[in-house]
Amino acid sequence: MKKQYLEIGKIVGTHGLNGELRVELWCDSGEFFSCFKKLYFDSMGREEINVKSRPHKNIALMKIKGKDNIDDVIPLIGKVIYMNRKDCPLPDDVHFVQDIIGCQVRNIKDNTLYGKVTDVFHTGANDVYEIKDKNGKTVLIPKIDDIVKEINVDEEYILIEPMKGLFDED
Fold first, then answer.
1. What are the extents of the domains in the chain?
2. Going along 58-108, which residue ranges are E strands?
3. DSSP-derived 3-state class of residue 107
4. pLDDT tens by residue, the chain, 170 residues
5. 5-86 under CATH 2.40.30.60, yes or no
6. What pTM does this model have?
């Protein structure tokens, strides 16, 4: 079951004296983060905050409505920030990392189960899926069209056509 509220960043410090916060991004970019006007301080969406933010180098600077000085925001340092997935519809071929993690990875031809996705790395050229099999062995799979053939996050599987040598072959 997909989580409704997803981690998008973490408050790591203040910026200036007027209540602006520095946010470590756990999303694609500061531009993406800055699209949100409502964010949350909990994974259930109970603690809503109205925000205005802007990209700044490799972080975002965020201002919370009603928090106008540094004393108001210092207690917030270390808090994780969540977004509501309903506020960010994605194209069909784009997925949240949290939805990829946990998917079974199987061979498209014979349905051989290779393991589950345990992490996703962003390399710049393409994402790389870390797969762990039932014995704990780790294999890295590049998310390229030649290998990854289908992703179904609703049914939690990824079908691949592995390159020769990607998995130990008997």
1. 5-86, 97-160
2. 59-64, 80-84, 104-107
3. strand
4. 678 999 999 999 999 999 999 999 988 788 989 999 999 999 999 999 999 999 999 899 999 999 999 999 999 999 999 999 999 888 878 888 889 999 999 999 999 999 999 999 888 788 999 999 888 899 999 999 999 999 999 899 999 998 887 776 54
5. yes
6. 0.76
